Amino acid sequence: MNINFDKTTGIVPAIIQDARTKNVLMLGYMNQEAFDKTVATNKVTFFSRSKQRLWTKGEESGNFLELVSLKNDCDEDTLLIQVQPHGPTCHKGTDTCWKQENAQDYGFLTTLENTIAERVANKDVQKSYVASLFSKGINKVAQKVGEEAVETVIEALDSNDELFLYESADLLFHYLMLLQAKGYRLEDIVQELKSRQK
Asked: What is the spatial distance between Cα 99 and Cα 92, in angstroms, rounded to a whole number?
């Protein structure tokens, strides 16, 4: 890998990203020696600009960043380093240096999962369809998923794409409810699917 280290400082920025969640954890800097040590040990090592020395993340806290992959940007002067973090990344004890939880996020689907969880917790059966269905027990939630699955299949065999998408959305929504009723989330299904890859 060709890296264009800064001609004045001899360093490049290194963006640290969780290989699983894809969240950015921190930004550090590397010189050639830090890069070489990272590759040799599989533990991310940086060059400290303030102390003018190498430091391996976790050398004091034990919260190492295990190397998964290294990528160089189009100008070959910025590194993207994917890692498996062992413990919090920030020296202040947070998951990231931006005080964000390093949780898996599937965008809108995660937002929808969180909304379902909030409505279940609020138990307002008069105002919330989700709370009302959950109050009837897991058998009713599972039955609703079955009904939506049948409706989706029927629409798949028809030529009305609008109805197919509508029923597909209903199916996914109710499936997310069933997952939560069983104590799971999308991340658990993704992990199961990943475990089947060969």
From this structure: 9
Q: What is the per-residue pLDDT across 155-171, written as a single tens digit (0 to 9) for each?
A: 999 999 999 999 999 99
- Cα 9 versus chain centre, distance: 34
Q: In which element (H, E) is residue 47 found?
A: strand 45-48
Region 87-103: what's the mean pLDDT? 93
Q: Is the dihedral of CA 126, 132, 136, 140 positive or negative?
A: positive
The conformational region for residue 58 under phi > 0 = left, psi -120 to 50 = alpha, else beta, is left
Quote the pTM value.
0.75
CA pseudo-torsion sign 109, 112, 117, 118: positive
CB 11 within 8 A of CB 78: no
**Residue 66 DSSP label:** E
Asked if 24 contacts 89 with a C-beta cutoff of 8 angstroms, the reply is no
Residues 59-87, mean pLDDT to the nearest whole number: 96
